[in-house]
Amino acid sequence: MNAENNIKTFIVKKPLKLDCGKTISEFPIAYETYGSLNKNKDNAILVFHALTGDQFVSGQNPITKKDGWWSYAVGPYKAIDTKKYFVICANVMGGCMGSFGPSHEDPNTGTAFGTNFPVITINDMVNAQYNLLDHFGIDKLFSIAGGSMGGMQVLQFISNFPDKAKTVIPIACTSSHSAQNIAFNELGRQAIAADSNWKGGDYSSEDTIPNKGLAVARMAAHITYLSKKGLQEKFGRKLQEREDLKFGFDADFQIESYLRYQGSVFVDRFDANSYLYITRAMDYFDLAKQYKGNLSDAFRATRAKFFIISFTSDWLYPTQENKEIVIALNSIGADVGFVEIESDKGHDSFLLDVPDFLSALKNFLDKSYTEN
Amino acid sequence: MKNEFQVIAELIEKDKKVLDVGCGDGILMQFLKNNKNTNIRGLEISKSKVQECIAKGLTVIEGNAEKDLKQFPDKSFEYVVLSQTLQAFLNPELVINELLRVGKKAIVTIPNFGYWRVRLHLLIKGTMPITKTLPDEWYNTPNIHMCSIKDFFYFAKSRNIKIFKSLAINNQNVSIINDSNLTIKNFFADLGIFLIEK
Q1: What is the spatial distance between Cα B23 and Cα A164, in angstroms, rounded to a whole number?
Q2: Given A148, A227, A310, A313, which residue is catalytic?
Q3: How many domains does chain A have?
Q4: Per-residue pLDDT tens for A194-207?
Q5: For the whole model, what pTM was predicted?
Q6: Who among B47, B58, B61 is closest to A336 (CB)?
Q7: pLDDT digits (tens, 9 = 90+) for A109-135
Q8: Most buried among A309, A346, B101, B190, using CB within 10 Å?
Q9: For residues B87 and B145, is the Cβ–Cβ distance under 8 A?
Q10: Do B55 and A359 touch (CB under 8 A)?
Q11: Which listed CATH number (3.20.20.300, 3.30.310.50, 3.40.50.150, 1.10.287.3510) goes with B3-113+143-197?
């Protein structure tokens, strides 16, 4: 991850008070942009990434050399059309693609922060990213959009800055992390902590990093992004390059081999401590609690137009949780549309080629833009 | 746009906030938005119809009137429209109550089971009536609670629901229904439109 010349960064000079009580300043935010900002500066869309995403939304990711994580949705003439819109995405605080995170050097010790990095929240992330508006001289974003943890950031952003976006698109997300979601995140964190290479988070000075723990965390999480039907159709009980069971513990089944592969490629691009911090931020997310239990109050001050999207086979952030956001908005008469997209691809549907989803996203954005 | 929608649109003044329950592909919504500057929202059960509405730039929520109207606060719309779907609900009375809770007024249209062609079909053929407004067979019709214009009139009375205006549509002809012509209109109209309030 040393191709730092491919990473655009700006330093936030203003101090930022974090939810944990600490104040940070002079911290970096890494970002990428696509398309161009028009004269009126009214075509900007701020995209928020999910747990393991980064600022490289579209095109080729210069670090991993793979397609950007939202390449199906973002690009020229795509749902989020970069010929028309100026797309900005920042690496979240706590991440490992250039923004301020646990792998950064702690000036007090001269080594990486590790677990001395402050525990951050979704609120801290969006407050940090809000500085992008000043950086680009944008008064009001045309839209904010994101799926999963990106959707949580969307909700937090509009609640913190009610008049800074015209349209708001939270996708496959929740206003409050459920016990099940916390449980899966805890499983991942414990897998990392159980790796003897983790060393309480202080592994940067060593050559060995907690690859095994991080890979297991990724494998477990990856299952939650798919659906039972999707898995069954893709893998079933198919065997991996063998005629019959081997009566051992190698990867007999294709699904085993697939998960092992997912785990192994993940550790090349992601930092174990970042995984701990970001999952923690997700678990702490409870927007209603910030407003004394009334979720509607989070949106009372905004006139933005909302479009909420969920997926039938998403059991991690199920339709019901997305609908709770719709209900909170309707109860205050907000402008909110909602659709549940039919898909067998589970929570990952928002990242994949799901035509009904992509056309809904495109139609909503383009129609809202012409009505501008 | 069909005659029924023209009549509904005429009942709604400019610049109002309106909810179209079972908005379908959004034809009425679009007309109201463009011609009456209506702040219009839709509720629709079919995913593909919701997609069509989004493509028209309309604000629509995918949902079911029997379950999802409860999220709207009391009297949060000036008008709530329900076009030809009352008969498809498991509990039409509950839906009517919800329409009148959410809207200051409601506009309900019903395919009239008292229409002479319907009566004649059953009388002569002895099988369940099939007409232009009721095109399905008994075994695949979504219409499980059919009523006539007269039935709706009596229902409203028994529940102390005020009928501001009731209109009969027969092909292109629109006429006013009142207590004195109710029996005749119930015979000749294939569609009834009611503007109600509670």
Answers
A1: 31
A2: A148
A3: 2
A4: 999 999 999 976 67
A5: 0.95
A6: B61
A7: 999 999 999 999 999 999 999 999 999
A8: A309
A9: yes
A10: yes
A11: 3.40.50.150
